[in-house]
Amino acid sequence: MTLQAREVSWDRGGRLVVDGVSLRPEPGETVGLLGPNGSGKSSLIRLLAGIARPTAGVVTLDARALPTVPRREAARAIAAVTQHADTTADLTVRHIVALGRIPHRGAFGGDRGADDEAVAEALARTGLTAKAGQFWHRLSGGERQRVHIARALAQRPRELLLDEPTNHLDIRHQLDLLRLVCELPVTTIAALHDLNLAAMFCDSLLVLKDGRAVAAGTPAEVLTADLIAEVYEVEAAVSIGDATGRPQIAFTPHRPAVAPGQP
Ligand SMILES: Nc1ncnc2c1ncn2[C@@H]1O[C@H](COP(=O)(O)OP(=O)(O)OP(=O)(O)O)[C@@H](O)[C@H]1O
């Protein structure tokens, strides 16, 4: 059992930005959410995180409607790193990562040893151990992004929701982060823009367009040249990598051919 969406819709300001989308990840798998700007990826992540409620359909955690799950239980199970996550307080990296432990604290405090261990592990996994004492305002954009991921990891969630987790990272850190996410025994749903990274690391993909799910399946099933032309309106050649057995996408500078009669 995992976090699932059943036919969820979200009317946001009079427009359906998520329109009847279902998502049923296998426990432990990494799901890539794809789609052009404005297709509803962040909105779906907000619904799955319980930050917003769907106007139709239901998000479930272990088959229970999310609003009926006790707040603390949901906060322990689900960690979300949303877009533009920021912190105004000027804390050190270690303090910010330790905020991920808050859902584990009871009325009489928590297990200090377990907290310290989880924070140290999250810092190490995200390559931030040497930066633990540094203040937030002295970090680069990519380092800040890794701090947010580390905070989510320190929470030791079962379900991890990531909205464009690699957008500020250099290529090494992009690869490191996605490799890490895949190795974690955690169900991860990540909105991604880079189709090659999605193909390389995700177990399955869900493609959104105008709020609707237009394709779902393994990267090889989903990432065809036709689908890329239809959804992103770009021309691409798709091959299967010898070393990876996964699709590799090479884009061309041309616009895809349009059907006769279309503008
Ligand atoms: N606060 C809001 N109120 C009303 N509509 C919104 C709001 N935020 C976003 N939208 C609209 O919802 C739609 C989906 O946006 P969303 O951010 O979910 O897309 P996305 O796929 O994550 O896009 P991107 O790749 O650009 O991050 C867009 O058309 C957007 O204009």
Automatic annotation (TrEMBL):
| Pfam families linked | ABC_tran
Give the matching CDD domains. Answer: ABC_Iron-Siderophores_B12_Hemin
Q: Which key words tag this protein in UniProt?
A: ATP-binding, Nucleotide-binding, Transport
- What's the source species for this entry? Glycomyces albidus
Query: What's the protein here called?
Result: ATP-binding cassette domain-containing protein
Which InterPro entries does this one have?
AAA+_ATPase, ABC_transporter-like_ATP-bd, P-loop_NTPase
Which residues does the UniProt record annotate as the domain ABC transporter?
3-235
Q: Which GO terms describe its molecular function?
A: ATP binding; ATP hydrolysis activity
Q: Which SUPFAM superfamilies match?
A: P-loop containing nucleoside triphosphate hydrolases
